[in-house]
Amino acid sequence: MKINLKILNSSYISASKKCEGLNEKELVKNMMLRRRLTRSARIAIYLASKVGYSNERVVFGSAYGEVKATVDIINSIYHKTLLSPTAFQNSVHNTPVSYLSIVSGNTGEIITVSDLFNTSLSVLKTGAIKALNGDRLLLLSIDTFDFDGVKEINRCNVTELESGVALLVEVTDQKANIAITDKKYGEISPSLWHMLDVYNSAKELDNPVVEVEI
Amino acid sequence: MQKNRAVYIDKTDLCCSAGLYKDELFQSIILGDTGIRYYEDYLIDGSTCAIGKIVSTGAFDTLMLNRVKSILESSDLDNFHNTFLVVGTSVGGMAWAEDKFIKTEGSYRDIVLEKQSIYSISHILNREFKFKDSITFSTACTSSSNAIVFAKELIENGAYDTVLVVGADSISYTTVNGFNALGVLSNNPCRPFDSSRDGMSVSEGIGVILLSSKTTDIKLLGVGCSSDAYNITHPHPEGKGAILAMQNALENAGISSKEIEYINTHGTGTIANDKAEGEAILELFSHNPWVSSTKSITGHTLGACGAIELIISAMVLQKGIVPKNFNLKNQELAELNLTKENISTDIEYVLSNAFAFGGNNVSIILQRVKSED
To answer: Measured between CB atoms, does A124 come within 8 Å of chain B?
Structure first.
């Protein structure tokens, strides 16, 4: 089945170490909540604001989750020190978009998919099927993995340790002018490549429409 | 494009601490034979915990492959080459990664992402069965429920005729100690809806469901999703997210709340979940449908629980037995129609709930298809 998605808006951010200028104070007024936000949650809230998100259903993708939290947990287990409850709750893959739902008061469907290097492709496919309901969806793909020891496991030689891409989409009957490709973006986590490629194509077009095959 | 095709449960199988196969589990549920046992080697503070570990000579991955193989062999399919695989898991290969990390004295050098990540379950299954395509859902304890929702959408929109859902989560130090750190792990087998309940029992499990456009005796009638938008670890105290998910499922099913005869709850045994879920059920279902939690038998199988409990719900319809609440002595919410005994009855509609961290909620409704003769 082929489903065409009209890209209503899109945004992208990345940094070699830590994304700055995420406008947290403006976007998350509650200081206690703001302080609890994970790195991916901050990026999710920022990207959502950039594409004009207004509590649409959300499909989020992350290949690795909050790696820093997972690393903290596995080290606690190895050294037999007490686990941080915060690290545990933050290690859950859908935590970033759960924070987005809390900040925005979104009581709709919010889901997370994770398929390693095909993660953002899975976001597009999942979003395409969900979009057949006729509503707008926010598609997000984010991965952050700045932690001590990242060099030991960074076998793809990713140089941007934080990156995220957002697409606000709806289903359309219009002809597609973007095809999903397997283009590589070496410096970025491969989990984002498919959506990043769509983002790069979309920003060059007046009326971007991507064809998703599932 | 074919729209709104009906979706049916074709084949199911499972594996958990209280039953290596679905009929074995249903027998355990009816007899009150819990799979939750005491272990001394999981909590890093050295204390004893009660968890549901599968006792088998086979490794977890082997058990999962065997259950999927048994589904294939009992189906009309020659292979899964035109079937879409939807996986639901919350920890993926975490147990494998913990083992590697400890054996290499705290080094990441042997951590392989295909085996450590959430994707690991899909990786194992795709390598063996070569599915047409696959997607993995990871929304904590609603992972396999969201997988079922997506599987329904794939079939009803005509994208696929058959979709295999696999919910799978194995016991790991991370989950046992993580829930203990949050203060929601009980020292004893959990007691859902009991006034003296003190937490959940972390467990492992595998649930496999083959969904199809082909008519069978169980219809996947309705699904509903919602978010609490309230707190990362605590459900909305009045169960507002749970109410919304159940309302959405009823709307999707096209039936009224009065038609639901049995609710298989999320019922974890934590103080917060059971109170919120119980209040939500009382708010929405004024006609007192039967209510039970089967987690006092299976434990909380995390990302697999949605699939496992939907299989249990299907068996309730097929066998005509509503199970009792094992380990329930003094119920907290007196108005809730919690079953005290197994009830033989002929029912048509059941609703199964699954709720998760971050206020992620899914409700699913099944209908027993009456034979025409």
So the answer is: no
| Residues of chain B contacting residue A102, judged by C-beta atoms under 8 Å apart | 229-232, 358-359
DSSP letters spanning B78-128: S-STT-EEEEE-SSTTHHHHHHHHHHTTS-STT--HHHHSTTHHHHHHHHH
B373: pLDDT strictly greater than 50:
no
CATH number of the A2-213 domain: 3.40.47.10
The torsion region of residue A124 among left (phi > 0), alpha (psi -120 to 50) and beta comes to: alpha
- Contact between residue A198 and residue A122 where contact means Cβ atoms under 8 Å apart: no
By the 8 A CB rule, do B128 and B346 touch?
Answer: no
Exposed (0-12), middle (13-18) or buried (19+): which is B373, by Cβ within 10 Å?
exposed
No. of helices (H) and no. of strands (E), chain B:
11, 14
Q: Among B110, B135, B153, B169, pick the best mutation site for testing chain A contact (most A Cβ within 10 A).
A: B135
- Cα angle A78-A80-A84, degrees, rounded to a multiple of 5: 95
DSSP letters, B117-176, are STTHHHHHHHHHH--SEEEEE--GGGHHHHHHHHHHHHHHTTS-SEEEEEEEE---HHHH
Query: What's the gap between Cα B352 and its chain centre?
Result: 9
Domain boundaries, chain A: 2-213
- From the list B296, B286, B295, the residue with the least C-alpha distance to B352 is B295
Dihedral (CA of B180, B183, B189, B190) sign? negative
Residues of chain A contacting residue B3, judged by C-beta atoms under 8 Å apart? 132
Nearest CA to B231 out of A128, A36, A202 is that of A36
Q: What is the pLDDT of residue A149?
A: 78
Per-residue model confidence as pLDDT tens digits over B96-125:
999 999 999 988 888 888 898 999 999 999
Q: Which of B133, B135, B360 sits opposite A94 (nearest CB)?
A: B360
Report d(CA B169, CA B150) in Å as an integer. 19
DSSP lists the bridge partners of residue B86 as: B135, B165
CA–CA dist B309, B100 (Å, integer) = 32
Average pLDDT, chain A: 95
Gyration radius of chain A over CA positions: 17
User: What amino acid occupies position A200?
Assistant: N
Parse chain B into domains and list their residue ranges: 8-368
**Predicted local confidence at residue B3, as pLDDT:** 57
pLDDT band at B1 (very low <50, low <70, confident <90, very high): very low
- Asked if B5 contacts B213 with a C-beta cutoff of 8 angstroms, the reply is yes
Select from B306, B295, B315 the least CA-distant residue to B147. B306
We find that the CATH architecture of domain B8-368 is 3-Layer(aba) Sandwich (3.40)
User: Is B244's CB within 8 Å of A80's CB?
Assistant: no
Angle (CA) A212-B9-A2 rounded to 5° is 10
Q: Which two tokens stand for residue B219?
A: 């219809």
Return the residue in B98, B112, B138, B179 with the most chain A beta carbons within 10 A, the one to mutate for interface testing: B138
